[in-house]
């Protein structure tokens, strides 16, 4: 079965018109830029959908399927798009999960969990962690992958093996079939109704089961195939493992990649998340010796054994925190990342002893030492999980990076590694690396590939033919856990044999007779489908050229699902760069396409990017899409805009004075006409002057802080230079805020109370700035000018760097720490309050519950834990809202592009219960949007610490 296109008698316009009758316009994506952006996933394929539909409920999925049946339009369902084999892209209708699929319900005190398909795997584990449980599947992409994809691909991962994968831990599921029928296999009523109305389907499944049971060789074939990891084709083991046809149907859905039905919920049995863990990197002279160690370890109570070959180790050699032996390994040196889990420390130590005894006769390059240090263990796993993208970072620009995923019976592991290395050499892939879940005989191999010429495509095809022959000869699987997709569809019959493949085709025809569901995936008659629709990765900008479009960044992005995510911004910019570089404007139509893409990118790509940099924290290669956007903003500035920027930098004190006057005038006007009136007034005024800001109901008042140094009598903890940020110097609390003092006043009071002498920069503070407002707009020259001016002033104020410089706003601290050139001790407010101030205060825990928002800069500085600790010192309960990363206020974007802020915080209010009456953060502008969107006041953490270090009424200060 090939991928179908729309019925030629029915146009795309007709399809969209019919969809528009059921779906709101903002959830039908038809513009060229966003369809292009949705046409990519983590694989090396690209198919641009005719329309993208954002679905929010089971009823909407049923409606969508009905419209698509009418138009003979295949539909592909997509969750996070981290799939690696091309199963989440289509040139027909792409159905993307919206906000309505994120329900998670813990069952039986954590023994099971019900999850909708939009829940990120790591979020499920976060909910289960207090109960000492987790879901079984643990793919490397778990921080980004959603449950829908985890189930549809039968994900496994590092520790779960074949015993705890999605198939084995499935208790029940809800599935919508091609005709819109909804079946809940966990409901007796739903099962009874389905049995009555779909007797023919269930009888056919039983007939297939009986047919397989009657064929001894086929039965043995299926059993053998699923003794190892295997996601090639369909889960035929369901026909053997279950007698009830509904249970067979449920387990056929697992690993079906959306080709048999849409999974709208799964109930998974959970597994223990043992509290005691120890990890080591063991080094061996060759892969064969490492494989011998794996065979010995297989008989021990080991949780995970990950193999990394010589090429993979070379790619990580020299990274901070890793063993020094990495820089002096022999040519074929191989490592095993080994981990044990246990309920108690004693059990863990016992298991380590058993492992060391088992490996005693296997020569190692240095003694094996386990670590229980969480940071060291996390580093080992972070490196292992990042090997795939790391190869992407090392590849030549303009090429793509491929990851293949095979498994052998473990007795063939050593032979498989050696032969695979030989195939790399034979076909000219000397830079390829091999790693994987050795305990399960599961190997991933990664290599860079140029698809820009027929010769290179042929080279890749020849490699895959040889790999297929090798895997078949060893009785292995061509896809152990990454799914068949389009990548392995031509090879399913070769791996399984004609009889088993014929069974899969019959299952597809039975459950999707119109070939409506993810057509072209798993079952495909085109023997070269894996060589078609290959994704271009043209050179666009050095900042992002190494991106492989894996999508790990998207969970951190405040604009994902609104306009574009970081991955999609890169896709769009690559296409624009390609068209401009190739001069694809030879016809009026070409020029119109380019103009359309560029015009749409101005808003979706540039204007609505927060440029917060959180995407880099989720990217294994540290790619910051925000840096590209800031560069593009700078390049787009006109000479007049640059002149205005320079004038603002040169006369910064005047600009701040004007800001305060504006805030003062706004406060007076608000007192007369209220928030509603102010919003209406500014909305009307912007029609004449578009550059005016939007009104926010939590707009700050003008700050009345006076900045000057006062010598104190009792100084016990030395001096600190305090530099109040521009926002702190201009913006006071909002009119409705119960705390009326501006932040600099609160900070000085708090610092004095803790025994510090507070110094301020010499001279006129008003003209000083770290440059952050200029940097965010792409005005790097002016940003660096302001930071340099600040550093010169602070150098004298700090007595040539003797005193630390305290910044009360995290974005300013981060910029000063990362871009500063003088030898100054720039310290963020969270660090200083936690490390230096809190130990010198007597705290009175006054608050019942507070919520914490760690800014993007704070997260990048690693201050989330400290901020929570400060809040916990003052409140009985501290809440971090789920689903909130960057607030999207982004300096002043909350005033000029407020829709970004509102989208970023759309889940905030739902995450806060009635007990929470206050929020804390470390950026005044972020607090404006947080306060408005939550309905409770957000302040700097300094306010909470100041209040809770003051004795309660009636109690004297010690």
Q: What's the quick description here?
A:
Helices cover 42% and strands 13% of the residues. It has 958 residues and is an alpha/beta fold. Among the domains are: 274-380, 2-Layer Sandwich (Alpha-Beta Plaits); 387-482, Alpha-Beta Plaits (2-Layer Sandwich); 538-636, no CATH class; 674-958, no CATH class.
Poorly predicted runs are 1-9
* Radius of gyration, taken over Cα atoms and rounded to an integer in Å: 30 Å
* Strand-residue proportion: 5-15%
Shape: globular
The strand count comes to 27
How does the major sheet shape up? 6 strands, antiparallel
The residue-averaged pLDDT reads 93
Q: What's the N-to-C terminus distance?
A: 81 Å
Output the structural class. alpha/beta
Helix segment tally: 38
Strand order, biggest sheet? 12-14-13-16-17-15
Proportion in helices = 40-55%
InterPro entries: 4Fe4S_Fe-S-bd, 4Fe4S_Fe_S_CS, Cys_rich_dom, FAD-bd_oxidored_4_C, FAD-bd_PCMH, FAD-bd_PCMH-like_sf, FAD-bd_PCMH_sub1, FAD-bd_PCMH_sub2
Cofactor: FAD
EC number: 1.1.2.4
Family: Belongs to the FAD-binding oxidoreductase/transferase type 4 family.
């Amino acid at each position: 079965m090939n991928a179908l296109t729309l019925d030629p008698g029915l146009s795309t316009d007709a399809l969209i018109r019919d969809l528009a009758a059921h779906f709101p316009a903002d959830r039908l994506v038809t513009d060229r830029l966003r369809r292009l952006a949705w046409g990519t996933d983590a694989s090396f394929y690209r198919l641009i959908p005719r329309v993208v539909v954002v679905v929010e409920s089971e009823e909407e999925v049923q409606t969508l399927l009905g419209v698509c049946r009418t138009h003979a339009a295949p539909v592909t369902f997509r969750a996070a798009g981290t799939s690696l084999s091309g199963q989440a892209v289509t040139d027909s209708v792409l159905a993307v999960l919206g906000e309505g699929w994120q329900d998670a319900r813990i069952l039986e005190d954590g023994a099971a969990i019900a999850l909708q398909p939009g829940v990120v795997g790591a979020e499920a584990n976060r909910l289960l962690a207090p109960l000492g449980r987790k879901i079984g599947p643990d793919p490397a992409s778990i921080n980004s992958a959603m449950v829908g994809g985890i189930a549809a691909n039968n994900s496994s991962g590092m520790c779960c093996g074949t015993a705890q994968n999605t198939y084995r831990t499935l208790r029940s599921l809800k599935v919508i079939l091609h005709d819109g029928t909804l079946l809940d296999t966990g409901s007796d009523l739903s099962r009874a109704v389905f049995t009555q109305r779909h007797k023919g389907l269930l009888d056919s499944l039983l007939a297939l089961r009986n047919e397989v049971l009657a064929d001894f060789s086929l039965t043995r074939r299926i059993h053998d195939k699923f003794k190892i990891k295997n996601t090639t084709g369909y889960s035929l083991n369901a026909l053997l493992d279950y007698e009830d046809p509904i249970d067979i149907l449920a387990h056929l859905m697992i690993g079906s990649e959306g080709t048999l039905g849409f999974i709208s919920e799964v109930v998974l049995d959970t597994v223990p998340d043992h509290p005691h863990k120890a990890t080591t990197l063991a080094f061996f002279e060759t892969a064969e010796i490492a494989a011998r160690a794996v065979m010995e370890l297989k008989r021990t109570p080991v949780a995970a054994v990950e193999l990394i070959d010589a090429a993979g180790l070379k790619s990580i050699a020299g990274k901070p925190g890793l063993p020094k032996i990495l820089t002096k390994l022999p040519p074929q040196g191989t490592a095993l990342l080994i981990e044990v889990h246990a309920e108690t420390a004693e059990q863990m130590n016992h298991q380590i002893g058993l492992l060391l005894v088992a490996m005693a006769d296997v020569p190692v390059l240095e003694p094996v030492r386990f670590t229980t240090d969480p940071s060291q263990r996390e580093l080992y796993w972070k490196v292992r999980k990042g090997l795939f993208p790391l190869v992407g970072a090392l590849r030549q620009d303009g090429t793509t990076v491929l990851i293949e995923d095979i498994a052998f019976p473990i007795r063939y592991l050593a032979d498989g590694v050696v032969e695979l290395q030989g195939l790399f050499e034979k076909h000219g892939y000397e830079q390829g690396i091999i790693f994987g879940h050795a305990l399960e005989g599961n190997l991933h191999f990664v290599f860079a590939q140029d698809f820009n010429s027929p010769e290179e495509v042929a080279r890749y095809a020849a490699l895959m033919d040889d790999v297929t022959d090798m895997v078949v000869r060893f009785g292995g699987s061509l896809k152990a856990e990454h799914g068949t997709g389009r990548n392995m569809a031509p090879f399913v019959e070769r791996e399984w044999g004609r009889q088993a493949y014929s069974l899969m085709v019959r299952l597809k025809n039975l459950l999707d007779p119109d070939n409506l569901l993810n057509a072209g995936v798993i079952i495909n008659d085109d023997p070269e489908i894996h060589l078609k629709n290959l994704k271009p990765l043209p050179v666009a900008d050095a900042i992002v050229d190494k991106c492989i479009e894996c999508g790990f960044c998207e969970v951190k992005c405040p604009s994902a699902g609104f306009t574009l995510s970081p991955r999609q911004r890169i896709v769009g910019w690559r296409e624009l760069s390609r068209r401009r570089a190739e001069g694809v404007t030879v016809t009026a139509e070409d020029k119109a396409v380019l103009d359309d893409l560029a015009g749409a990118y101005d808003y979706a790509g540039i204007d609505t990017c927060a440029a917060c940099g959180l995407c880099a924290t989720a990217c294994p290669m540290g790619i910051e899409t925000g840096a590209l956007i800031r560069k593009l903003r700078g390049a787009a500035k006109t000479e007049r805009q640059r002149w205005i920027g320079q004038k603002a930098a040169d006369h910064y004190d005047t600009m701040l004075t004007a800001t305060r006057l504006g805030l003062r005038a706004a406060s007076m006007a608000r007192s007369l006409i209220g928030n509603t009136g102010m919003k209406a007034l500014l909305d009307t005024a912007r029609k004449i002057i578009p550059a005016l800001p939007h009104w926010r109901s939590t707009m700050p008042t003008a700050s009345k802080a006076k900045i000057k140094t006062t010598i104190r009598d009792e100084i016990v903890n030395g001096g600190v230079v305090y530099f109040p940020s521009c926002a702190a110097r201009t913006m006071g609390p909002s009119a409705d805020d119960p705390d009326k003092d501006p932040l600099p006043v609160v900070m000085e009071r708090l610092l004095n109370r803790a025994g510090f002498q507070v110094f301020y920069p010499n001279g006129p503070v008003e003209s000083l700035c770290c440059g952050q407002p200029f940097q965010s707009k792409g005005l790097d020259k002016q940003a660096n000018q302001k930071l340099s001016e600040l550093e010169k002033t602070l150098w004298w104020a700090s007595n040539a760097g003797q005193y630390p410089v305290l910044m009360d706003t995290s974005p300013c601290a981060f910029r000063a720490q990362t871009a500063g050139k003088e030898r100054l001790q720039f310290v963020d407010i969270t660090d200083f309050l936690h490390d230096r101030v809190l130990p010198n205060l007597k705290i009175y825990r006054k608050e019942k519950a507070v919520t914490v928002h760690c800014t993007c800069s704070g997260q990048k500085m690693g201050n989330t834990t400290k901020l929570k600790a400060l809040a916990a010192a003052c409140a009985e309960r501290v809440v971090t809202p789920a689903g909130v990363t960057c607030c999207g206020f982004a300096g002043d974007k909350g005033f000029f592009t407020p829709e970004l802020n509102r989208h970023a915080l759309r889940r905030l209010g739902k995450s806060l219960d009635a007990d929470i009456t206050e929020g804390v953060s470390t950026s005044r502008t972020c607090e404006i949007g947080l306060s408005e969107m939550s309905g409770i006041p957000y302040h700097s953490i300094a306010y909470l610490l100041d209040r809770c270090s003051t004795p309660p009424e009636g109690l004297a200060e010690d």
